[in-house]
Structure formats: structure tokens, C-alpha cells
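Quick one, C-alpha cells below:
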């Protein structure tokens, strides 16, 4: 192995593990073997490397074998890979800044919408809300979230200097901002199950 002699200690530090014992437990490797590997007395066998990789998927196998590259790498799941591919193929290649901004805002709102729905469900459980009433709150929340996205999109599209036909429209951005604040307030009340 072309790696440094104390490669196990480097790996443990990079993984943020508190101790060698914790590393042994998670990899299902014996302490004696790990100590010998740390001292450079033994070269790791394939099954040892496989146990390390299975326990810590973020570990760079190239680094384990050759000592080259980063110790840990960012592991992406299938959904993350698909989302990144869609972004690269359909958004980034267009070179349209407005499209990139809209995508970014949509992702932010998607996460926020999901969090708000979870919070609504938790509040409904805590307050023992009936299913029929909960359905009403869910529908109300979804409608408000949809309206918020529309207003947010309109706010992004407000021209800074107006258009050739209309000229500058004073106060339009402020009106949309006020409406967005109002919708966020209504969403907050709905999540808290306030009617």
C-alpha cells in the first residue's frame, strides 16, 4: 500500500470518529488487526478494505488502496444524481439566469413546503385533530403554498425599469412583497392550526 504508515489514524480523524475502538466496532475489525495496520506491520487484505468501505461509504477506495486522492469523498444517492443531471441538462445548459434563479427558488420552496406540511402533521397529532379537520388544514396549506410560489415567481419577474409598453410601474414590487408576507403569515397560522 502506497499510503502513509499511519493511514488508519488519518482515516479515523477524517471520519471524525472519537476513538480507534469506535472504528473497530463500526467496521467489525479486531483491535489487534487495526493496531497492526496502524503500525504498518500488515498490509490490508481486500476483505478488510471492503469492511471499511461498507462501514464508511464516503471513504475513497482509491485512497485506501494507493494513498492517492482525498481520504473521504462526497457520496451521492440515486435521487441526488438524477436531480443534478436534470439541473445540468435542462437548466444550466440553457444559460438563462432567470431559469437558474427560478430553479433555486423552487428547490427552496419545495423544502420549505415539505417542512411546513410535516409541522402541520405534528401539530395535528399533538392537538388530536380529527381526520376531516386535518384534511381541511392540508388543503388550505397546499393552496396557500401554491399561491406563495406564484407570487414569488411574479416578484422575480418584476422588471427593474418597467417595459417599453408600460414604462415603470411604481410600487409593484412592494405590493408583491406585501402579498408574499401576508401569505407567509397565513401559512404560519395554518401550520399552527389557527383558523
Amino acid at each position: 500500500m502506497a499510503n502513509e504508515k499511519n493511514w488508519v489514524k488519518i482515516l479515523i480523524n477524517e471520519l471524525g470518529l472519537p476513538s480507534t475502538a469506535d472504528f473497530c466496532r463500526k467496521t467489525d475489525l479486531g483491535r489487534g488487526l487495526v493496531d497492526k495496520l496502524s503500525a504498518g506491520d500488515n498490509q490490508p487484505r481486500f476483505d478488510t478494505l471492503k469492511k471499511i468501505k461498507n462501514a464508511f461509504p464516503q471513504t475513497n477506495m482509491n485512497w485506501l488502496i494507493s494513498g492517492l486522492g482525498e481520504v473521504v469523498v462526497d457520496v451521492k444517492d440515486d435521487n441526488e444524481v438524477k436531480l443534478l443531471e436534470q439541473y445540468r441538462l435542462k437548466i444550466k445548459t440553457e444559460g438563462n439566469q432567470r431559469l437558474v434563479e427560478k430553479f433555486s427558488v423552487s428547490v427552496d420552496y419545495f423544502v420549505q413546503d415539505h417542512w411546513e406540511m410535516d409541522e402541520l402533521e405534528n401539530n395535528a397529532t399533538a392537538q388530536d385533530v380529527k381526520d376531516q379537520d386535518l384534511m381541511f388544514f392540508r388543503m388550505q396549506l397546499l393552496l396557500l403554498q401554491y399561491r406563495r410560489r406564484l407570487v414569488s415567481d411574479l416578484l422575480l419577474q418584476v422588471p427593474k425599469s418597467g417595459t417599453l409598453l408600460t414604462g415603470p410601474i411604481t410600487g409593484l414590487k412592494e405590493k408583491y412583497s406585501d402579498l408574499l408576507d401576508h401569505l407567509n403569515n397565513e401559512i404560519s397560522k395554518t401550520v399552527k392550526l389557527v383558523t
